[in-house]
């Protein structure tokens, strides 16, 4: 199988790509020193859990199928109890960012080998970052021990992603790369990785939409997810991620769709202050202004464009703009409440960025 490497130093992670890789999970688990593996999925993906339990045979220590968005700590505690009762020393997180988040939350609480089988493009499997929710309050932390030890990208697993989710999840991944390009702590290596990730989606995504079962194109987009996720773990994020976080928290919006709607607008907002940094995006996606270029790409793929269509009330925009401008963080361009309010209006209306 194809094993990728980057110029990023200091990441101790086994990463492999290939159709049918999930059938070899027992071998990878053993190589990583795992003896008893607890399988994690969402309720929606419990069938995948059953299939993996069969593949793991005697190494399977059970299935926990209650992973949920935003990693609620009560679910983590329940999973931890299963883990302890089963005497598991490893988890196999088979799913998107929510399931991989549960694996990380368990690794925070117990010494574990973590194996990830990503089924979306969100990229959490590449980062040492964990967001958890307790009593409705989300907090984010970063610790190298949270990064999964083994990541197996099996393109067959993303063929079941419905086309709308394929598109929003891919744009969610691309957002990591776009913001990495103007990050304060970027390096030549992170720039190269970000461009590599964007290129993989630029080339792979139209082919996936033409034929969602095209394994070659799916693998290309998974390589994009890997590059974008890895770069997310290397540099600080700015306006786009903070605004999506605020919107998600304040209005309980779906993660990937929110990213897909906001990205062209946040990029346009930052463009005057990061013209050189964002030039590769404009060039790759073929417009003079990178936000417009991303808008054209997203709409050509049928991505959602409007917060209104997500059910956001226009009267909430003032509150979100105030919240987003409240907590200061580094961004290439000054963040003003009026500026964010205007950005949100366009995202709510579903009109092109300016
Ligand atoms: P998700 O994991 O929440 O999945 C959404 C739904 O899609 C679930 O019901 C899931 O079972 C289903 N699904 C997933 N893959 C599927 C497939 N191949 N076929 C059919 N259905 C499938 O979605 P996500 O967007 O991957 O993850 C979002 C979460 O991940 C958010 O909470 C976000 O904060 C977190 N995240 C964290 C990081 C990090 O570095 N810590 C990075 C990105 C995202």
TrEMBL record:
The keyword Metal-binding does not apply. Residues 166-348 form the Fe-containing alcohol dehydrogenase-like C-terminal domain. Keywords: NAD, Oxidoreductase. Pfam families: ADH_Fe_C, Fe-ADH. GO terms for molecular function: alcohol dehydrogenase (NAD+) activity; maleylacetate reductase activity; metal ion binding. Residues 14-155 form the Alcohol dehydrogenase iron-type/glycerol dehydrogenase GldA domain. PANTHER family: ALCOHOL DEHYDROGENASE (PTHR11496), ALCOHOL DEHYDROGENASE 4 (PTHR11496:SF102). Belongs to the iron-containing alcohol dehydrogenase family. This is Maleylacetate reductase. It comes from Marivita hallyeonensis.
